């Protein structure tokens, strides 16, 4: 068994676990319910952790996690690096100056 990712955001960990399962990787979440009160970051050792049961899945799991974390969140706004305009997430380019989304 191998730990592949840890983050205080339980929802993110849950989402990643789902993605891994969709790709046929047997995984589970540790510390899912030990986090402190709302708005309070749990100490590092209590962060929810994502583990894979089969060590052979580790590299693939890491790749999947990386690609999920790098994918832009649909619907989240971005700031145009060129003109500073706030652009809605569904647009791939700035509506004002045409600069592509970062
Ligand atoms: Zn712009």
**CATH-level-4 superfamily name of the largest domain:** UreE, C-terminal domain
Q: What topology, given as strand order, has the largest sheet?
A: 1-3-2
The count of DSSP E runs of length 2 or more, i.e. the number of strands, is 5
Residues in β-strands, percent:
15-25%
Reading the helices and strands in chain order gives EHEEHEE
What hetero molecules are bound to the protein chains?
zinc ion
User: First CA to last CA: what distance?
Assistant: 36 Å
CATH-scheme architecture of the largest domain? 2-Layer Sandwich
Question: How many domains in all?
Answer: 2
Give the averaged pLDDT, no decimals.
86
Low-confidence stretches: none
Main sheet record: 3 strands, antiparallel
Radius of gyration: 17 Å
SSE arrangement:
Layout (H helix, E strand, L loop, with lengths): L1 E5 L3 H13 L4 E4 L18 E4 L5 H13 L7 E2 L6 E2 L15
Antiparallel strand pairs: 1-3, 2-3, 4-5
Bound molecules: zinc ion.
The site of zinc ion has 8 residues, from loops.
Summarize the structure.
The chain is an alpha+beta fold and 102 residues long. Helix content is 25%, strand content 17%.
Written overview of the protein:
It is a single chain. Helix content is 25%, strand content 17%. The termini are far apart. A hairpin with a 6-residue loop joins strand 4 and strand 5 (86-87). The longest helix is centred in the first third of the chain and has 13 residues, at 10-22. It is built from two helices and five strands, in the order E-H-E-E-H-E-E. The structure holds zinc ion (ZN). Zinc ion is lined by residues 80, 82-83, 85, 94, 96-97, 99.
